[in-house]
Amino acid sequence: MAATVEARPPDKYVDVRTQELQINMGPQHPATHGVLRVAIWADGEIVTRAEPDIGYLHRCAEKIGESVTHIQYVPYTDRYDYLAAMNNNLGYCLAVEKLAELEIPERAEYVRVIVSELNRIASHLMAIGTYGLDLGAFTPFFYAFREREEILRILEWICGARLTYNFIRIGGVMRDCPEGWLEDITRFLDYFEPRLEEMNELLTHNHIFVNRTANIGVVSLEQAVKYGLTGPNLRGSGMRWDLRRDDPYSIYDRFEFDIPIGTGIKGTVGDCWDRYWVRILEMGESVRIIRQALDQIPDGEIMAKGVRHLAFKCKAGESYQAVENPRGELGYYLISEGGQISYRSRIRAPSFCHLSILEEILPGSMFGDAVAIIGSIDIVLGEVDR
Amino acid sequence: MERLVGALEGLGESAFALSLLMCAGVVLGFVGIWPLFAVWLERKASADFQSRLGPMYVGGFHGWLQTLADGIKLAFKEDLIPAQANRVLFWIAPAVAFCGAFATMVVIPIAQGVEIVNLDIGIFFILAISSVGTIGVVMAGWASNNKWSLYGAVREAAQLVSYEIPIALSLMIPIIAVGNLRLGHIVGFQCAGPEDAGFVYLSHHGWLLFYSPWTLAAGLIYFVASLAECKRAPFDLPEAESELVSGFHTEYSGLRFSFFFLEEYVFMFVVSIVGALVFLGGWQPLPFVSFQFDNPLMKLIGAGILLGKAVFLVWVQIWLRWTLPRLRVDQVMTMGYKYLTPLAMLTLMGMALYQYWGCRYIPGIL
Amino acid sequence: MNTQEILETLNKDGVGQGITLFEGPKDPALVIPADRLVGVCEHLKSAPSLQFDQCILVTGTHMTEIRDKKTKEVTRAEGIEVIYHVRSLRHRALVALKVHLSLEDPRVSSVASIWPAADWHERETYDMVGVVFEGHPNLKRILLPQDWEGFPLRKDYEFPKEYRGISLEVDPPWPQQ
C-alpha cells in the first residue's frame, strides 16, 4: 500500500502550553543507542529544546594514536565504529599507506572492497533493525539480525572475529581468502536479495511505520550541508554525494553502482523515512559492488612487498584520507614526523557531526518523534566519543 | 456455582462467607495460573514470528515451566522503593491495578449458568470495574517520583479516557439487540431457538457478530478499542519501552512489578472473553447452528470452547503486538476521537434504527 | 581544483593577502593569518567559484619546536596549529586551512557562524588542545568533564594523579602477583 502522509503545520501542537519539564534522555535509555544523553525540555509531549551531551564513552582515541605505532593502532580503529570495523580499518590503513607511499596488490584491494561492502550491509541491517525497535516494531529487528548473522559468519570465516576484525592491515589484508569463501559470498548474496523485499513488506511500507517516519525530522538539504552531514543522512536530504564515486579511494572507480537519494516518496525530502529508505537501497548497491568485485578478483599477493610489520615506519608528512563509512565520511588526518608513531592522529567521526544537528531538528517534535529522529540518523556512540 | 452459592446461602451467614471465600479462591487460582500460560504463549508466538525458538528447556516440553521459573525469580527479587517515592501510594498501586482486572472475573459466565454472581448489570459492571486498574497505573506513575513514570501514567489516563467511550458504545450495540445487560442473557440470545429444539438446532439470531452489519462493525471497534484498553501494541504507549524506558512501572521491581504484569495478562483475557461472550456466541461453537449445553458434560465442553475462543483472541492480540510498530501519542488520540468514537456513534445509531424498523416491518426476525 | 588553484582564485578575488601555500611532503594547505581567518572563510563559502560549503574537520595540534640538527636553527616554532578541512560539494574539492597560534594564548575567531558543523569540532579542539575560539556560541568542554584540568592532547600534558578522589594511577594500588 502506498501510504503517504501530508505535511502537518508546525504550530498545530503548540496552542496549549503547560509547565515546561526538563527530562534526561539517557545516558541509559533504550532509544539512545548507547550512552548518549540528551537533555530535553518538554512542554507536555512536545520537545521545546534539546541538548545532546556526549563523552560518556570517551576512550582517548586520539591520545592513544600518539602513543602506539601505526601497526598497533589498527585494532583500536575497530573500536570506534564497532558496527563497521572493516571500513574503519580501511580508512586508517589508506591514510597510513598514503603517507608511506605503499603500493597495494590488486587482490588485496578486491578483498578489501568485498569485506567493507559486506560490513556496510551488516551495519545498515543493524541500523534498520534497531530503527524498527525504536518505533516499537520488534520483529523486523530479528529478521535483520538473521541476515546480519550470515555476514558475521562470512567475516568470521576469513578473519576469526565477528565484530572487531583487525583484518585490513597496513599494506594489504591479514590473510588470503579461504577455500570456498568467495563462492559462499555468492550464495549469501543470492539468498539476501529477496530478503530485502521481505523487509520492505514487513516494515518499509507498513502504514504505521510510514506515519511515524514520513514528514518527521525533516533535514533540508541546506541544513544537511551546513551541519556537515555526510553519508546516508546527506543523501536522504537529496544530495547525490558519495565518496566512493566523488573522491574514489581504493578501487571503487572500477565498479558501477548507483547512489540512491531521498526523494520524499512518502512525505518531504529529508525526513526520517527517506534516510531509512536510502539505507535500504544502499544495501542493494553494495550487493552490486560485491558481485562485480567477485567477478573481477585476480589471483596474486595479498600484502605489499617490503612492509616490515615489526618496524614499520612512515615518511614525514600530513595527510587526510576520507572513506565512505556506512554512517558517512570517516576521515583520518595523520601528521607524521617519520618513525613508527603518528605525531597527531585526528579522527573525523561521522556520527559526531550528525549528532550536532539534533539541537536544530528536535525542537517542535513529539517524544515519540524524538526517538524516531535519533534512530534515523543512525549514530554509534563509540565513534561519537572515540 | 450460582446454585452452590444459593444452596449455601440457606445455611446461614458463616456458610455464605465461606462460599464467597471459595469463589474468590477459584478466581484467584485462575488469575494466578492464566498468566503463566499467556506469557508462555506470548513468548512462543513471538519466537515463532521472529524465527527463534523461545524458551525450550525449563519443564521439558518447549519450556512450558519457564514462566513459573521467572515468577519465582521475580518473587525473590529485592523489592525496591525509591527514596523520594510516595511510599503508601507506591505500595498500594499494584494492588489497585490488579484488583481492577481481578474483580471483573466475578460476573463472567464460564458456561451456561456457571458464574459467581449473575449481576443484572453485568457488562456495565465490567466496564466500570476495569477502569479501576487505570487508577492503579496513574497512582504508580505518580508515586514513583520519576518523570518517565509520570509520562506513562498521564498517557495511560489520556488513552483510557479516550477509548472508554468507543468500547462502551460498541458494547451497547449488541445490547440493543438483546435488551439485557446480563452476560448470560446475551449468550442466551445468540443461541435462542425454537421451543421444542433438539440437541442441535438452527438458532434464531446466530452470533451477534453476524447478526447485522452494525454488530459486525461494533465487534471490530470493540477489538481495536480493547487493544488500547489493555495497553497492547500498537497502543502500548504507557509503557513504550523505547520512549519511556518502561513507562509507569519503571521503578517497580520484584513482586510488585509482577502484579502489573499479571494485571496486563488478566485484562487481556477479560476483554477477550467478553468479546467472545458478546460477539462470538460464548460457548456456541458455530455461528448459526446451536447445541444444547444443559448437562454438566456439555457445560464442561462449552467452557472449553469459550476458553478456546478467548485464547484465540488473546493470540490475535499477541500477533498484532509482534507485527506492528507503535503509534505516536497524538495518533492514538486521533484514532480514538476522530475515528473510533464517531464510528461507534454512527454504528449505534444505525443499530437503533435497524432494530426499530426491523422489528416493525420484518416480523419474525426477532 | 587543487590547493594551488584555490590560492590563485583567492588572490584574484583580492582576499589572498598574507595567505601562503604550505607544501608539506603530502597534503598541501593554505596558511592563513589568524586575524584574517573569518574573512577568508566567508569568502571561501560564498564566492561562486569556490563554494566551500561543508566544514569537514577542525583539528588542533600542539607543534613542538624543531631545530635543525646541525645548524641548531629553529625550523618549526613551537605553537598551536589549527587545521580546518573544508569541502566544496559543487566543485568536488577539499582544502586544508592552517592557522598558527601561540602556545601561551591560543586565540582565534570562531567559524561556527559560517559553518555550524564547526561548532562541535571547535568545542572538541578547545577541550583537547585548549584553543579559545572567540565568538563561539557555547565554548565549553564536550568530551571531558567540565571540571577537568589541562588539555590532554598538548604534548606537555601530564596525566593527573587523581580526579575527584578517584585514583588515576596506572599501576594498580593492590599488590602485584
Please provide a brief summary of the model.
The complex is a heterotrimer of chains A (386), B (366) and C (177). By secondary structure, chain A is of the alpha+beta class.
Explain the overall architecture.
The complex is a heterotrimer of chains A (386), B (366) and C (177). Chain A has a single domain (60-385), classed as Cytochrome-c3 Hydrogenase, chain B. Helices cover 46% and strands 15% of the residues of chain A. Chain A has helices spanning 61-65, 70-78, 85-100, 106-134, 139-159, 181-204, 207-213, 221-226, 231-236, 243-246, 272-296, 350-355, 358-361, 367-376, 381-385, and strands at residues 20-25, 37-43, 46-53, 168-169, 172-173, 314-325, 328-339, 342-348. Chain B folds into two domains: 35-76, no CATH class; 87-356, no CATH class. Chain B has a two-stranded antiparallel ribbon. By secondary structure, chain C is an alpha+beta fold. Chain C is 19% helix and 29% strand. In chain C, a hairpin with a 2-residue loop joins strand 10 and strand 11 (166-167). The radius of gyration of chain C is 19 Å and the shape is globular. Chain A binds chain C through residues 54-55, 58, 60, 62-63, 66, 98-99, 225-228, 239, 241, 246-247, 315-320, 322, 329, 331, 333, 335, 343-344, 346, 348, 352-353, 355-356, 360, 385-386, and chain C through 24-27, 29, 53-57, 59, 61, 83, 85, 89, 92, 94, 96, 115-117, 119-121, 124, 128, 141-145, 152-153.
C-alpha end-to-end distance of chain B: 31 Å
Strand order of the largest sheet of chain B: 1-2
Number of domains of chain B: 2
Total number of beta strands of chain A: 8
Q: In the CATH hierarchy, what is the class of chain A?
A: Mainly Alpha
Terminal CA distance of chain A: 42 Å
Taking pLDDT < 50 over at least 5 consecutive residues as the criterion, the unreliable ranges of chain B are none
Radius of gyration of chain B: 21 Å
Could you give the count of β-strands of chain B?
2
| Beta-strand content estimate of chain A | 5-15%
CATH topology of chain A: Cytochrome-c3 Hydrogenase, chain B
Structural class of chain A: alpha+beta
CATH superfamily heading of chain A: Cytochrome-c3 Hydrogenase, chain B
Instruction: Sketch the topology of chain B as an H/E string, one letter per element.
Output: HHHHHHHHEHHHEHH
By DSSP (H or I, 4+ residues per run), the number of helices of chain B equals 13
Q: What is the SS-derived class of chain B?
A: mainly alpha
**What is the share of helical residues of chain A?**
40-55%
Q: Which strand order do you get reading across the main beta sheet of chain A?
A: 1-2-3
